[in-house]
Amino acid sequence: MTSGLRAGLAAACTLAALSAAAQQAPPTPEQQAQSAIEVRQSVFTLMGWNMDPLAAMARNRIPFDAAAAKTRAARIEQLAAMITDSFQPDTRKFKGETKALPNIWDSKDTFNGKAGELVKAAQALSAAAASGDKAATLKAIGGVGRACGSCHDDFREED
Ligand code: HEC
After folding, report:
1. Residue 23 alpha carbon to ligand 1 centre in Å
2. Residues 91-101 pLDDT 10s
């Protein structure tokens, strides 16, 4: 394929995608709320996926691995920084599958503060893991776990 043909095809694909999008009705407020719920739950799904091995290390169920702890801590820090943004849309009026309690939007400062505490706990874990000190790392994993629990206690519906 010549590069001109390739560029032409790419442009045609982009145009087709754009016109398909233009023909679709804009998302309803319900659909926007549903997307917002899915985005924030995705953040937490990844958070849980990164936390699981850390918790398993802390409980001595898998061997201690400082490098893995450092990687997971960095990811949790990044994900924690997305919490505030992902709760920007106020979805209280919409019914959807969510465990987010309505008081999140009444106590935004407290909620955001708890997200900030998780960022700090994840940074402390990164530093401990980078030092390779097993006891300090396990202790810092406990700190991250407490930061998760502290927010869930106040702002997430119980199972
Ligand atoms: C600032 C508050 C806050 C912090 C900090 C927090 N969470 Fe959550 N978490 C929530 C809320 C609120 C929900 C419910 C979201 C929903 O259903 O819309 C949730 C949901 C979850 C879920 C379920 C996701 C789903 O798909 O339903 C998991 C797993 C989770 N959190 C793990 C964690 C872990 C692990 C940490 C710490 C590393 C953490 N969370 C820290 C507030 C928080």
Report:
1. 36
2. 999 988 999 99
Condensed to tens digits (0 to 9), the pLDDT of residues 121-133 reads: 999 999 999 999 9
Tokens for 37, please give them: 């719920």
Q: How far is CA 39 from the centre of its chain?
A: 8
Check if the beta carbon of residue 121 is closer than 8 Å to that of residue 146: yes
CA distances for 113 relative to 8, 64, 81, 106, angstroms = 50, 30, 11, 13
Residues whose CB falls within 8 Å of the CB of residue 99, separated by 6 or more in sequence, listed in order: 156, 157
Q: For ligand 1, say whether the CB of 98 is within 6 Å of any of its atoms.
A: yes
CA of 74 to the centre of ligand 1 (A): 17
What does the block give as tokens for 3?
């590069």
- 127 Cα–ligand 1 center, Å: 23
CA distance 94 to 51: 30
Q: Decide whether any atom of ligand 1 lies within 6 Å of the 27 Cβ.
A: no
- 23, burial (CB in 10 Å: exposed 0-12, middle 13-18, buried 19+): exposed
In whole angstroms, what is the distance from residue 153 CA to residue 104 CA?
12
122 CB near ligand 1 (under 6 Å): no
